[in-house]
What we know:
The complex is a heterodimer of chains A (444) and B (173).
Chain A: H1 2-38, H2 44-49, H3 73-81, E1 86-90, E2 93-96, E3 98-103, E4 107-112, E5 121-123, E6 126-129, E7 132-136, E8 145-147, E9 150-159, E10 165-175, E11 178-183, E12 201-202, H4 207-232, H5 241-261, H6 266-288, H7 302-318, H8 322-329, H9 336-382, H10 389-433, H11 438-441
Antiparallel strand pairs in A: 1-2, 3-4, 3-12, 5-8, 6-7, 7-11, 9-10, 10-11
Helix pairs in contact in A: 1-9, 3-9, 4-5, 4-6, 5-6, 5-10, 6-10, 7-9, 7-10, 9-10
Chain B: H1 17-152, H2 156-172
Amino acid sequence: MVDLETTFKEVVLNTMARLFLTAIFLLTFSLVSAPVLASDDKDEKQEQNDHSSDDSGHGEEAGHGDEPKEYDPVGTVVEHIADANEFHIWKGVHMPLPCILFAPGEGWTFFMTSKLEHGHQAVDGYVLNHGRVNRIADESFPKGEVHIDGVVHEEEHHTDENGEEVTEEVAYAVYHGEKYKLDGPTKWDGGILGGGITSFYDFSITKVVFSMLFVALLLIIVFMAVAKGYKKNDGKAPKGIQSFMEPIFVFMRDEVTIPMIGEKHYERFQPFIMTLFFFILFCNLLGLIPIFPGSANITGNIAITLTLAVITFIVTNLNGNKHYWEHIFWMPGIPAWVKLILTPVEILSLFIKPFSLMIRLFANISAGHIIILSLVGLVFLFGDMGQNLGGAGIGAVLGGLFTAFMNLIELLVAFIQAFIFAILSASYIGAAVEEHHHDEAHAH
Amino acid sequence: MVSTVFLSSFPILLPDPGLIFWTFLIFVIVYFVLGRFAFRPIQNALKKREDDIQASLDEAKKAREEMANLKAENEELLRQAQEERAAILKEAKETKESIISEARDKAKDEAQRIVASAKEELEHKRMEVLTSVKNQLGLMAIDIAEKLTKNELKGKKEQETLVNTLVDEIKFN
């Protein structure tokens, strides 16, 4: 348990340091961007009206109108870390991805994102908005492939049930002078964070899903080669990729699975812990590669960490033995009134554990992506969107140096976070399958 | 354009059911494929190799111990052989000595016996010779006496003197 505590402390420190860094960068950022943005306040209204969805936020593509568009650091960062239905590769080149969409009452719709023409064409009421497929729920909108004039974003003010003024950004598709409201895909946040169930579900192979498939393929190729090595070099020294992976594998076994799960049970759960570790590690590392097929913020998306945490939760609790459940519902060896307090705490901790797994990985990787994107954004910010070459140069040197530094840290974080996820999962599983010796266990 | 950052515009915070579905599917497939065809074989191979190494080490240790035992045994055997040899040699020596001394004793005895018997014989012979000499001398004496007597004993007186002398002489003998 001492190990776990140290790990926990490290995690807390790590997160705190990260938050601190983020805070500093955001502060610097706002200080730098405030004057730039303030000078263009008057253009804001107009900006929003013809803020078409294609290549918006991409600094390098900003020269699309006659006027150079204002650089929006927050928008750029948010769009880059978000999932998308097409994979932006280089300048205007996008890799089309298959869309698998389900609207209740409407049924399934399949097509490639190339059909959507970056927001200029609607297919069965589906339109691309900020790289995501949105749906026009309005029945009057024509089916099939329809050319639209574009997508506009408007801020709408209304008062919610508590009487507070709420500002909401709403996107509209413009078709024949008419505006049709766009629905985003359903999000399972219960509507708390602004998502909620909408008129359709998006089961597309998005950028993140594509990256995950790539990781899965990579993992299978790499570890099949390693496994083949063990068969081929049976009784001989490891060779090639086998000897590269073996120390990592042995380290994970000797430092994570055996000490956390115990000699008796570790073999049963080792493949699971290894899959978790290498899957997260490969996703983290792939996210750090700035060019295709990297760059997708896989483990920095709550849906992915949520799923991984839920899988750990299921595996842990399906394998919980009698003692594990006894310790949760009726901790032996303590007075009854303490049990009344302890039981709810234990039940809560049952869910807090996977929740913390989910948040930790998500926050760490997202923060890393945000910092790096912000630093790269310095080039555009200092360069005044290509108007100020000197500023861009300074931004490039400054941003480049900081980005290089941050990338090194992120490399470390990629390993640490995968390791922490694996070791904590192993410790939860270990606690669930541990055989208790009561006299011993409660003597201290 | 300063846009207020809405939580809804921070889409990575909103769990997307499609993404959850794909993550689950991909992870489970990766787990089953890698678990079945990679991680389990790898962990078994590693375990087998470790067991092999341990077994080899144990075997080497055992062999070394056996060798040490064998050496000790050999030394013991050698020591025993040497001892035996020494014992045999000693015994042989003793036997030799005893044989020699026995032979010597026997020879001595024999020699003594021979000497004794020779002495006896010598005595015997001497006595025989003596006796025969005595007899011869007697006879000669008788002859001499006879002759003398014949010559001298022409008178009575001379005869008597002679007899007396003779008697005396005999007495002395």
